[in-house]
Amino acid sequence: MTKLAELKKKYMKDPEFRKEYEKADLEYSIIELLIRARTQANLSQAEVAKRMDTTQSAIARLEGGGVSPSIATLRRYAEATGSKLRVEITRM
After folding, report:
1. Nearest 5°: phi and psi at 53?
2. How many whole angstroms separate alpha carbon 15 and alpha carbon 23?
3. I want to staple 46 with a disulfide (CB 3.0 to 4.6 A). Which of 56, 64, 77, 84 is the partner?
4. What's the angle, vertex CA 53, arms to CA 23 and CA 77, rounded to 5?
5. Hey, how many other C-beta atoms are within 10 angstroms of the C-beta on 2?
6. Which pLDDT tens digit goes with each residue over 28-60?
7. Which of helix, strand or coil describes residue 11?
8. Which of 63, 64, 11 is nearest to 37 (CA)?
9. With the C-alpha atoms ordered 28, 34, 35, 40, is the resulting torsion angle positive or negative?
10. Is 50 helix (H, G, I), strand (E, B) or coil?
11. What are 71-87's pLDDT values in tens digits?
12. What are the DSSP E strand ranges found in the chain?
């Protein structure tokens, strides 16, 4: 096991660390899904921005994690990339 993996394993035993790590992991997962939807649609950030009636820099901030998007924004992004937004809540 690598030193980084060992360190992560150690810190994941701390409930507060685990909670914050999982929250960050969810945010990065959303970013990954946005970028994947755009690249699979063969669109640039500028093209998505035009379809959403916004700017390329706003899309860059969205994909870079610089903002916390609303459901409405995520829906518009999905539609602009020819995708469908689906939100799911599951028990832990």
Report:
1. 60, 50
2. 12
3. 56
4. 35
5. 7
6. 889 999 999 999 999 999 999 999 999 999 999
7. helix
8. 63
9. positive
10. helix
11. 999 999 999 999 999 99
12. none
